[in-house]
Amino acid sequence: MKIPQNTDIRLTDALERQLLQQAIESQQEYALDRALKRLFQKIAGFFKSTHGRANHPVSTAH
Asked: Each residue of 19-51: b (16+ CB within 10 Å) or e?
């Protein structure tokens, strides 16, 4: 199969807008996913640190 050398691919304005919108939405979803992941990691870290403190007895000097 011979590939033409001077292939000129043009997008219609509507298709170009649609593809751009999809790319923007993908970026926003990725940013939201990362933000939620960081939030859950912080919450999990908070519970781990409070759980660790509750299991250690408090020692006092006599």
From this structure: eeeeeeeeeeeeeeeeeeeeeeeeeeeeeeeee
